[in-house]
Design goal:
The complex is a heterodimer. By secondary structure, chain A is mostly helical. Chain A contains 15 helices and 6 strands. In chain A, helix 3 runs antiparallel to helix 13. The C terminus of chain A is likely disordered. Chain B is of the alpha/beta class. Chain B has 11 helices and 10 strands. A 6-stranded mixed β-sheet of chain B has the order 6-7-8-3-9-10, with helices on both faces. A 4-stranded antiparallel β-sheet of chain B has the order 2-1-4-5, with helices on one face. The chains are: A mainly alpha, B alpha/beta.
Chain lengths: 350, 271
């Protein structure tokens, strides 16, 4: 990870620089900025889904639940609530700063990830898919029907924007689209770096081992339950962070944040971009996140799904493993050393 | 081996039943430190089942396995490896989508003590570098340095076996179980593997093999344990096993000696 790592990170750095410069190129167009922010938020969620789907091979079709829980926890923390539980127990919560809500959203979704991981990684594959779908549906129904807490379909409104404390500058409340754009970009970059470090470590290697050959991985001393639960916790926490950003940016959330179709969009982003690669969900996220912007003048949102499907089929036809692995193969058809963690090919050593 | 040595592995009256099917009836034998022992028997004799019991992939219906005095009862596969008992697999011995080098890096999982916090903060560069050095040493040792950057799944069968051995050795075992290590190998590949097995023993690793290749078993083993229909039918050094009537019968079929005699009488009559 010494010499080749600089060139290996080059595409990501170029992309980051381009994204940082993008608002200036667009001339602060509010409609496009808004599309970029929501795309960025969903892309962070797709990155977190990729940690599970791409690196451990477990498909979480209820990933939107973590996103939605993050949004509601963050929103409720900063709005406050007053609910009556069973037996006349009344819980009153005074509003706290949105930044605390963000932290709590991450912690709460990490805990949910732990529970779902423990419950379902004992039964893998199809069972995990079913558990995650059920989990998301239950959470959606709670958000819809516990009107006293969540306002149900009337939505949580007036969620305050996030404030950012910077040394020397004091606290800035992030009201403008431009500020929110850079906040999402910063959180996305942080998640990218964290996932990158995780998958390059013994933890990531354990995940890959379990995905490729579980019996062999177990016989090498890899603890399957612990490894997969760890992946679920980190994945859920990042999805929760994305949900929190979403809530404080839109400042209104309703039970529709739990829509199954958003999970499907995330899966399309991951698979189209290239699952199991770091940049895959980012590239897929940008393409499928911004596709509706390009399609809006020509068709209604419902019809856009057909284009999504066609684009995904097209990508899979040309690049079966997704855009990023396909491009890597195009650029460097014979460069296996670059994909490895070995700095020196064994052949050239004395 | 005599009474003086304490066994490293004791299989104590192990039985395995799948419903009404008896895979292993009552298996009882010891392996002593530094030995190369082979477990042989016809197809379906229960050899791989015995391996799966020893490594925690199967729970025995009766009896138990002790490793270095510790009962393995109720332990998960990953916990048993940590005690120093490692294994290879018959067919799928590699992580096919990773390079050979990264295979060994995955195998070194337990050699790294990196904590999650240090990993996320990027503070484990030294540990990772040490791990890569270790991986290169292991690949050198099994003779796969030239293949380090190739996808493990793309290697020839025999080389995949070597990767499997490197992976098992990465866990630094005190004892290694090899499940049919030379099946599908030609004579010269088998000879290379025999040398490797001896070299592994010289590293201080005790070996237990399941193998069908009789010449190889006879050549490499200090002692042979013979299973048939889930029962131990013979045990001893190769010279004794080779001439054991129960073993010959198990491999050639019941009454084979008598049939051979009758055949020669008939031939004599027809002549």
């Amino acid at each position: 990870m010494t010499q080749p790592s600089r060139t290996r990170h080059l595409p990501a750095l170029v992309l980051l620089a381009a994204l940082a410069a993008l608002p200036f190129a667009l001339g602060h167009d509010p409609y496009l900025l808004n599309a970029l922010i929501t795309t960025g938020v969903v892309t962070i969620a797709a990155m977190s889904l990729n940690l599970l789907l791409g690196f451990t091979g477990q498909l979480s079709l209820g990933h939107i639940a973590f996103f939605g829980i993050g949004a509601y926890v963050s929103g409720l923390t900063s709005l406050g609530f007053d609910v009556e539980l069973f037996g006349g127990l009344r819980v009153v919560h005074e509003p706290w700063p949105p930044a605390v809500g963000f932290g709590l959203a991450v912690l709460a979704t990490a805990a949910c990830g732990y529970l779902v991981g423990r419950l379902s990684f004992r039964v893998r594959g199809a069972y995990f898919v079913i558990v995650t779908i059920s989990f998301a549906e239950v959470v959606r129904l709670v958000a819809l029907n516990w009107v006293e807490l969540t306002q149900g379909p009337l939505a949580l409104t007036g969620i305050p924007p996030l404030g950012l404390w910077l040394p020397g500058l004091g606290t800035t409340v992030l009201r403008t689209k431009l500020q929110n754009y850079y906040l999402v970009l910063a959180v996305g970059t942080l998640c990218y770096v964290l996932i990158g470090r995780l998958v390059a470590s013994r933890f990531g290697r354990a995940m890959r081992g379990l995905k490729e050959n579980e019996s062999l991985a177990l016989s090498l001393g890899i603890n399957a339950t612990r490894t997969l639960t760890l992946a679920a916790v980190i994945s859920a926490a990042m999805a929760g962070a994305a949900g929190s950003l979403y809530a404080h940016y839109l400042r209104i959330i309703d039970p529709d944040v739990f829509l199954f179709s958003t999970t499907v969009t995330m899966v399309i982003m991951v698979v189209g971009g290239g699952k199991g690669t770091l940049l895959g969900p980012v590239v897929g996220g940008l393409i499928f996140g911004l596709l509706p912007v390009a399609l809006r003048p020509v068709m209604v949102p419902e019809a856009q799904w057909m284009v999504f499907g066609l684009v995904l089929i097209g990508i899979q036809f040309v690049m079966p493993r997704g855009i990023v692995p396909g491009l890597v193969r195009l650029v460097a058809p014979r460069r296996p050393a670059a994909a490895s963690s070995s700095p020196v090919p064994a052949e050239v050593r004395p | 081996m005599s009474e003086r040595a304490v066994p490293i592995l004791s299989v104590e009256h192990v039985g395995v039943r799948f419903g009404g099917l008896v895979a292993i009836a009552d298996l009882h034998f010891d392996v002593h430190p530094g030995e190369i022992v082979s477990l042989i028997g016809p197809n379906g004799a229960g050899k791989t089942t015995a391996f799966n019991v020893m490594t925690g992939f199967l729970k025995p219906s009766q009896g138990q396995v002790r490793f270095r005095g510790t009962s393995l009862h109720g332990l998960q596969p990953h916990e048993i490896v940590r005690l120093g008992l490692s294994r290879t697999f018959q067919r799928t011995s590699v992580f096919p989508d990773d390079t050979v080098f990264d295979n060994v890096m995955i195998g070194l999982h337990r050699r790294s003590r990196a904590r999650l916090v240090d990993t996320l903060l990027g503070r484990d560069r030294a540990g990772e570098a040490a791990l890569r050095d270790r991986a290169r040493e292991l690949l050198d040792w099994v003779g796969l340095s030239g293949r380090a950057q190739e996808k493990a799944g793309a290697l020839a069968y025999g080389e995949q076996r070597l990767v499997g051995v490197a992976l098992a050795l990465a866990t630094e075992p005190a004892m290694l179980l090899l499940d049919e290590p030379v099946s599908g190998m030609n004579a010269s590949e088998t000879q290379v593997f025999v040398r490797l097995i001896r070299a592994i023993r010289d590293r201080g690793v005790t070996l237990l093999l399941v193998e069908h290749d009789m010449p190889m078993v006879m050549e490499v083993s200090d002692r042979i344990v013979v299973l048939n229909y889930g029962r131990l039918i013979a045990e001893g050094p190769p010279a004794v096993i080779r001439s054991d009537p129960a073993v010959i019968e198990a491999y050639l079929g019941q009454g084979s000696a008598a049939r051979a005699a009758a055949q020669s009488v008939r031939e004599a009559a027809n002549a």
